[in-house]
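[step 3/7] inverse_fold.run input=structure_tokens len=467
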């Protein structure tokens, strides 16, 4: 009996989608530009016991298993590259507990991030990680990828909010790691190891998450600049004053030009950068903070500055930033969005390098991102046929140069999207064979037969790197 029919017999036919069923197609792709990868079956697990059962049977039968949350990943992390079984935790949707006294939530991994945020905010609490995909990505996927978002500048990324995990291991053992208290240094930090391991160590079946009291008020400021260096200087100045905004976003000229036709705000013709800053805290203190941020932007050459604390007006200021990604996507045959990170002091240099790469390779680029963290979404834009190998070779060369430059500026390949399949072979650009070797040993400890999400994160030994 093949693995799909075996799982259908053990879990129930309604929990397993078999090869030949067109519903399987959705489990063979994610939001990366990669082609679908065929698998034998998708197991839709409702409980930890079902996850453990799938992991036991797959280990016994030596079948690869690929964990999957909501499939919103951008790096091919949940693609079943070696076939086998896609283990989806999508049906595990329970918010088991929200404790205002302990500032903790206990949730199943399939809970959609926005749903958790809404549920805790109803109780005056706050779960800060805010990936732009929060309306459709899952908390389990966020932990597996250590997701970030605009608010990471003040509040940090998902890792800062995962206190404890329940994890299904290859072979079917269930492990609980971490704790419910915010502080705790007992033993090695296994939670930190699972967070960001991209489903290669174990399948997350429950998360204990740290919450904060909800900040009472927010205010937003948008500044438009003629030169990206001026925008960079304004950001440095406002951080230097000791102001800690929750968001500092930046977008370049190419991004502005794509948004221009759809935006209600008429950007000046010479606008080359926008900075969006958001602060939160006591309503009384926000006005003064915005005034100071406005002064810094003004002093560094902003040609337009808008500030708002009314929710509708704040949404209007966010409009230009939110329109960038869909505008780029609609305007081009395909776009490849990378998420390198550089030290904040190197942002302006990195943007200059991206312009040079675009000019020299003929691949248009638009950059926006979380400037407070130096996390830049560099988008390679192309209108040629992606099926033409010469086109893809040119795009790959441009993207490879972006990675190499980010690393040369003491940055990193990924600030929040993870490595998955897309960036796996670029790992040697940043990490030595020694570091990769220790990570391979770590992976082998949890999954000695290399059956759990194989082919992700770590390149094969001495992988040929495209740079
Ligand atoms: C428009 C758009 C905007 C985005 N914006 C952001 C952003 O601002 N910040 C950001 O960080 N990301 C962003 N992303 C990327 C993506 O949404 C995140 O990586 C998200 O965390 C993935 O969650 P998911 O549930 O969709 O995971 P999936 O795509 O299903 O899986 C992602 C990885 O996690 C593993 N995984 C999933 N669930 C589990 C589990 N329960 N146990 C173990 N491993 C698991 C998978 O094997 C895979 O390796 C964006 C994506 C899109 C399409």
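[step 3/7] decode complete -> sequence:
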């Amino acid at each position: 009996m093949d693995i799909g029919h075996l799982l259908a017999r053990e879990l129930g036919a309604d929990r397993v989608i078999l090869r030949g069923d067109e519903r399987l197609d959705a489990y063979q792709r994610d939001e990366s530009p990669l082609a679908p990868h065929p698998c034998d079956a998708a197991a839709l697990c409702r409980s930890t016991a079902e996850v453990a059962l799938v992991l036991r049977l797959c280990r016994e039968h030596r079948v690869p298993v690929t964990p999957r949350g909501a499939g919103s990943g951008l790096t091919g992390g949940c693609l079943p590259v070696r076939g086998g079984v896609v283990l989806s935790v999508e049906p595990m949707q329970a918010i088991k507990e929200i404790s205002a006294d302990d500032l903790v939530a206990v949730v199943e991994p399939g809970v959609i991030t926005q749903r958790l945020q809404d549920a805790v905010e109803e109780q005056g609490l706050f779960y800060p990680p805010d990936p732009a995909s929060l309306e459709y990505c899952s908390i389990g996927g966020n932990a597996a990828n250590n997701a970030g978002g605009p608010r990471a500048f003040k509040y940090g990324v998902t890792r800062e909010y995962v206190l404890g995990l329940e994890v299904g291991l290859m072979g079917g053992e269930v492990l609980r790691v971490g704790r419910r208290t915010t502080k705790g240094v007992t033993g090695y930090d296994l939670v930190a190891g699972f967070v960001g391991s991209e489903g290669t160590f174990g399948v997350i079946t429950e998360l204990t998450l740290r919450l904060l009291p909800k900040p009472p008020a927010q205010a937003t400021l948008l500044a438009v600049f003629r030169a990206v260096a001026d925008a960079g200087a304004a950001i440095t100045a406002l951080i230097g004053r000791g102001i800690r905004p929750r968001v500092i976003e930046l977008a370049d000229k190419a991004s502005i030009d794509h948004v221009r036709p759809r935006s209600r705000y008429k950007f000046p013709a010479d606008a080359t950068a926008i900075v969006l800053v958001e602060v939160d805290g006591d309503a009384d203190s926000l006005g003064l903070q915005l005034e100071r941020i406005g002064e810094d932007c003004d002093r560094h050459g902003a040609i337009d500055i808008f500030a708002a604390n009314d929710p509708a007006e704040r949404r209007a200021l966010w409009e230009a930033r939110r329109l960038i990604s869909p505008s780029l996507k609609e305007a081009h045959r395909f776009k490849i969005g990378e998420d390198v990170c550089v030290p904040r002091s190197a942002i302006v240099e990195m943007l200059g390098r991206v312009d040079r790469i675009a000019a020299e390779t003929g691949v248009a680029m638009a950059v926006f991102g979380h400037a407070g963290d130096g996390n830049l979404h560099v988008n390679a834009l192309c209108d040629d046929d992606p099926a033409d190998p010469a086109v893809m070779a040119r795009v790959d060369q441009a993207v490879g140069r972006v990675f190499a430059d980010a690393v040369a500026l003491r940055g990193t390949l990924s600030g929040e999207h993870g490595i998955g399949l897309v960036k796996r072979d670029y790992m040697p650009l940043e990490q030595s064979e020694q570091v990769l070797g220790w990570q391979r040993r770590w992976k082998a400890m949890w999954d000695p037969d290399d059956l759990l999400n194989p082919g992700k994160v770590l390149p094969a030994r001495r992988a040929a790197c495209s740079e």
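[step 4/7] annotate
The chain is about 35% helix and 20% strand.
The pocket of flavin-adenine dinucleotide is lined by residues 30-31, 66-74, 77-78, 89, 109, 131-133, 137-138, 140-142, 144-145, 147-149, 198-199, 203-204, 325, 416-417, 420, 453 (CB under 6 Å).
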